[in-house]
Amino acid sequence: METALIRSGQQNLPAPTGDLNGYIQAVNALPVLDFDEEQRLARQLRDEANLEAAQQLILSQLRFVVHIARGYTGYGLPMGDLIQEGNIGLMKAVKRFDPDVGVRLISFAVHWIRAEIHEYVIRNWRMVKVASTKAQRKLFFKLRSAKNRLGWFTRDEVEAVAEDLGVKPETVVEMEGRLAGQDTSFDAPVDAGEDDLFSPSAWMEAPDGDPAEWVERADTTAHEHEGLAQALATLDDRSRDILQARWLGESKQTLQDLANRYGVSAERIRQLENNAIRRLRKEMAAAEAA
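The structure assignment produced for this chain is given below.
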C-alpha cells in the first residue's frame, strides 16, 4: 500500500497505510496539548479557519485513535484500516469542535472516531451487511461484547440481553444468527471432487435458469396475450362476455349463471361458448400464419 505523509511544521508523519509499527511509534512521540493550548488552536480554527491549527489539533489526538482502534481488532479487519477510519472521524470532530463548551477535544471526538470505525466494521465484517438500521448497528456491537462473555445464548440469556439492550428477544435471536453465520463461496473450489460440491452453486441451480430461455418465454407469452386480445375483439359482445366470465375472470361462472343473466337455457350458453372458442382458435391460427 502507498505511504502518505502528514506534515506538521518540520515533521513528516507516515500514515497507517505503510509501516504500522513506525506509525504508532511516531504518533506516540507527538506531544499532547494542554487544555489552554487546545482551546487557543480550536478558536483559531473556528474564528479564522486556520488550517495549521486544525492540523496541530489532529496530530495531537492521533495516539488516542490508535488506542480506540485497538479495541476493534477482534473483528479480523486490518489494524491500519481501522486507524485510518478512526482518523477520518477525528477530522470530522475537529471541524465541529466548539471550544466554548469547555471540554477536552478527545472527550468530544471519541464519538466521531467510534462512529467511523463502527461503519467500517459493519460494511466489511461480512460480504453481506449484517446491520442496516440504527437499532441493528447498536445491537451488533453490544451483542458481540455480550457473546464474548456468555457464549451461545440460552433462552434465559436471550431475554436477559434483550431487557438489558431494550430490544425484543426475537431481535436478539435474529442478530445472533447473523453473527453465527459465515461467508461461503458461491462456487466450489476448483480442485473439489464430486463428493465435495457443498457450495451453493451445486444445489441452487435452477433448471430453467437460462436467461435466453426467460426472454424467449416472456416474448412468447406477450405474443400470445396480444393475439388473444385481437381475437377477442372480433367476437360479438355476448360471446366475448361469455368467454371472459367462463375462462378469463378471477371467479369462473357456471353455464346456469350466464343462462340466468341472458334469459336463455344453459345449453344455449354452451353452444355460444363452443362457437366462440372455435372462432378464437381460427383467428389466432390465422394471425400466427401471417
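Interim note for the steering committee: The chain has 13 helices and two strands. Residues 150 and 157 are 8 Å apart (CA to CA).
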